[in-house]
Amino acid sequence: MSGATSAGWYLRRLSRMGPQEVGGRVADTVRRRRWRSGLPDAPGVAGARFTAVLPAGTLAAVPPDAAKRLVAEADRLMDGHAEYFGVVRDDLVAPDWWFDPKTGRRAPSGYAFDVPYRDEEAVGDIKQIWELSRHHHLTVLAAAYAVTGEDRYAERVAEHLRSWWDVNPPLRGVHWTSGIELGVRLLSWVWVRRLLEGWAGASALFESNPVALQQIWHHQRWLAAFPSRGSSANNHVIAEAAGQFAGACAFGWFSESERWRDDALRSLERHLRSNTFDSGINRELASEYHGLVLELGLAALAEADAAEVPVPASVRLVLLRMTDALAAVVDNRLRPPRQGDADDGYGLVVDGAGTDRWSSLLATGDAVFGRLDWWPAVTGTDVRTPLLAALVRRTESAAVRPTRRPDHFADAGLTVLRGPEEIWCRCDGGPHGFLSIAAHAHADALSVEVRHDGVDVLADPGTYCYHGQPEWRQYFRSTLGHNTLQLDGADQSGSGGPFLWTRHARSRVLTAGAADGTADAGVTRWSAEHDGYRGSVHRRRVELTAADRQLLIVDEVQGPRRAAKLAFHLGPAVAAELVGSQAVLSWTVDGEDRSAVLDLPGQLDWQAHRGETDPPLGWYSPGFGRRQPATVLVGTGDVDEGEGFTTVLTFTC
Description:
Layout: H1 3-15, H2 19-36, H3 64-78, E1 82-84, E2 87-89, H4 120-123, H5 126-132, H6 136-148, H7 151-167, H8 179-195, H9 202-205, H10 210-225, H11 235-250, H12 257-274, H13 287-306, H14 313-329, H15 357-369, H16 384-391, E3 408-409, E4 414-419, E5 423-428, E6 448-452, E7 455-458, H17 470-476, E8 485-487, E9 494-497, E10 500-503, E11 507-513, E12 523-530, E13 537-545, E14 550-558, E15 562-569, E16 575-579, E17 582-589, E18 592-599, E19 605-610, E20 612-613, E21 616-617, E22 619-623, E23 626-629, E24 631-639, E25 644-651
Antiparallel strand pairs: 1-2, 3-4, 4-5, 5-6, 6-7, 8-15, 9-10, 11-12, 12-13, 13-14, 14-25, 15-24, 16-17, 17-18, 18-25, 19-24, 20-21, 22-23
Helix pairs in contact: 3-6, 6-7, 6-8, 8-10, 8-11, 10-11, 11-12, 11-13, 12-14, 13-14, 13-16, 14-15, 15-16
C-alpha cells in the first residue's frame, strides 16, 4: 500500500465513523503509545487450579468414526503436515510462527502496533501467518490425546505452546496486532487445557507455569483495552468477547478475572444481538461468518454453564434463532448459501478432515436446543458436539420457533425457492452489508444462486483473497462477479478499499413466495429492486415452476438508456455449450449425468469466458486462498427504459 493510497484510505475510512468511534480510536492510539514505554508483569498467582473440566463419561459419547477422523488428522499434524488456504505445509513439527509459506516472507519483529500487517511486501500473507497461531491444530492434538490417552499428542502440544510463548512475548510481533486473533487463540488455550486434563504435565504447562500465566493475563489485558468498536464491531468483536469470556471463566485466577468476565459477557450479549437479525440471519450477510459467530457463541455458552455463570436469556435466544435459520437455508446436502465474504475461519476445531462444519453445527443445535420436525436430517458425526453438549445446560425455551421451514427472511432480504429433485435457489434482496463500512459485503444486489442436488449450477463465485491481490479482491466482490446485472461497467455499491464500502445500494423485496391465494399451484415467486445505479432502478423477478422444473428470471431497468452486462456464473462442475443465446449445461453428480438448458436474453450478445486473468473473469473459489477456472456467460448490449431481459433455466434430467 503506497503512502498516497494509505492516506486516501484513512480519509475514506474516517468518513464512515461517527464521533463516538473517532473518540474511541483516538483513545486507543494514546493507549498504544503509552503501552510502548512499559510492559507490566502479570500479577502473581498462587495455588491456581483448573476446574473447568469435562464431565465424567463425556469422551465415551464421541462417535467412533469421528474419533477415527480426529486421530488421522492428529497423526498428519504429528508428521508436520497441514494445509492452510490452499498452501500445503510440511514444516509443522517445529514451525516458524512468523513465516508465510505462500510468499516465503517472514514478518518483521518489533512493537506489535508498528507491524504493517496489511502490507504483503513487508510481512507476507497475513492470513497464512495468523492462521497457525490460532492454535486450532493444538486443540486437535489435545483432543486426540483425550480420546486415545497417548502422551505423544500432549507432549507435542506442550512443545508448540512453549515455543510460541517464547518467540511471541506480549506486545511483540505480528500476533499481537489483531483482537480476533487473540480472542480465538485464548479460546483454543482453554480447550487445550481442558482436553489435556488427564495428562500428567497439564498443570505444569498452564497454571503452574509463570510464562503461561503471563501470556493469559496479557491476552486478556489486551482484549479489555482494544475492543473492536463502531463500524468495525462485526464478527471480530464477537470473537474478542467470546475468547475473553472463556479465558476469564476457565482461567479465573487473576484479580481482574471477574471484571473481565462480566465485561466480556455484557459485550457478547450486546453484540450477538446487534450482529443478528431477529430472524436469526447474521447481519453481515456473509454465510460463513454466520457459522463463525454461531460457533463462538455456542463455545462461550459452554464456558458460562461450565463455570455456573448466569447468562442473559437473550444469548440463548439469539443462538437458537441462528441455529433454526441455518437449518432453514441449507440445501439438501446441508450446504448454506455462498453469500458475501468467506475466509474459512473457525471458532473451535476439535475434529478431523472430512467432518462437515454445517452438519456439526446442526448436530450441536439439536443437542443444545432440540431439533424441529422440519429440520433436514443430519447423518454426519463429529467430536465437537458431544463435548459442547456435555457442558451446556439444556433448558426449555419460551421462544416461539417456526412450525414450518421458513423460506423468506424479510429483515435479511434472503429468500430460498425450492423445487422438485432438490432444486434450490437463493435470491438476494437484502441490505448491502452490516454497519457503515459493510466490510464483508459483495456488490451482489438481486443476485441469484441456483443448485441442483447440491451442485452449483448458477454459482456465487466466492471470495478467494483479502489482502495483497487487489485485482482479485475486487473481482470476487464485484457486481460482474455475481449473477446479476451491471450497468455502465460500474458496481452497484462503491468500494473505498478491500473492507470498505463508501456507497451502499439499497434493495427492497417486493414479493416472496406464493404472492396470494390465487397464485398458480406449484409456482413460487420473488421480486425485488435496488437503486445502486444512480438515475436507474434495477428490478428482478424470479419464478420457480415445480411442474416444469423451470426457473424464470426477468430483469428490468427503470431509467435512461444504459450499457448493460448480464452475467451467469456456472459452477466448476458444469460444462456449457453456448450457441447464440442458448447454453446447454451438463454435469455429473454421484455418477449420474445431469443437464439443463439456459435460454438467455436474445437482445444481448453472449460470450463464454473461463479462467481469464487480464482482467480476471470466469473463476470460482472453493475456499479461501484457492481458485479454479469456471465458465461465466456474459451478455452485453444496451438496455432501454422499461426493457425486460428474460432468462429461462430448465432442468432436463
